[in-house]
DNA sequence: CGATATGTTGAGGCGGGTCAAACAGAGTGG
DNA sequence: CCACTCTGTTTGACCCGCCTCAACATATCG
């Protein structure tokens, strides 16, 4: 389950290097990080880290999807972000590695790169491409999280689903077809909904020309959907 | 209304320099920024910037409170953050100044320092204390925003109010007294509630030993409140 | 002391959470 | 190839929390 093939394989290295975060680094910083990164393969449902644990590293997702969530005192767990290939997570503790403020779980078979916080911090002191990459990533995540928060407070379930669909539609199309990259389960959590609510949202959107079969979603009129 | 006393007064400079963001800068970076920062005084309700405007600068709040919000298509506005003295905002576009992704409004008479993005970006290239300060601020904001998002999805209105109160209670106290630093209006927006809902949440907390008179809030039993 | 903002309270409605049951696929093993 | 099972999705019924609107109360400030 926890197959630490300590050194990066050629395939993993190439994936990692193509990441948004890594792509903007200087040659030297890149090669340092590629060499020190731990590549880890994990089975579906396995926990990557738990909230409250000591946090000496952050992660870069190579393949698969990862759920970030927090637990309430009653044991309910709430997703607030779903990471896909190329995403960086838990990077908020590069500045000061304390404890993970949330838990991370593999939603399916995944492969992640584990990167030492101390190392990156030291690298960032000397190499501006590293600090710039951190700043860019953090800014993007802050904007994205803010977006989600606002959406939660502003839009109803069908509107949020429509938003999600429109986000991954060709900008100008009459009709479109989308294939969800993961289970509806995950999508529900991502949108702050119970699975049942997501299901109902989809049926509500049927009247707006959205039809669902399995993971494939047909949108007959993109412009119409945008009005919701 | 928009009194640009272009140069920082001694008082403003000292406030600005004591900011969490500025305090960790090197002497040289600090003095460059202090000299180039524009100090701006604004009357209550005046708009600092509007979402979609071009964004060549970010802000550091010196005195007063500022509301950050976004508008829905129907004109409803949703607060997602309330900034107090010392807070930095709109810093997410240091990495790439595009357009402001939200609007900012003075909740009362405020004084802000306006700081040029390009300047900070260039400074960060050469001076690691600047990039480190940015990374720290961004990390903190990301964590805070995530916290708010999770609270929204996890807790009911009285619980969120209790959370807010407990956050500014002496950690271990039998009873406590808090004075809100701003109108309940603002607090409501901050917690993602309609003003009426906040009011009702306070009355719901009366049975848990919370009594409200104007801006002053008495908590008879802090431990009991923590159970909610 | 009136005049305008800000807070509170009540009634009603809608969105979405929860629980339970029916249903659909994907494996799995006979 | 067909049960059987496990897991994920859908649907229905019900309920609770919060938003909305409207009326009233209380501050705040001229």
TrEMBL record, chains A, B:
Residues 21-141 form the Cyclic nucleotide-binding domain. PROSITE patterns: CNMP_BINDING_3 (PS50042), HTH_CRP_2 (PS51063). Coiled coil: none annotated. InterPro entries: cNMP-bd_dom, cNMP-bd_dom_sf, Env_Response_Regulators, HTH_CRP, RmlC-like_jellyroll, WH-like_DNA-bd_sf, WH_DNA-bd_sf. Residues 155-223 form the HTH crp-type domain. SMART domains: cNMP (SM00100), HTH_CRP (SM00419). Keywords: DNA-binding, Transcription, Transcription regulation. This is Crp/Fnr family transcriptional regulator.
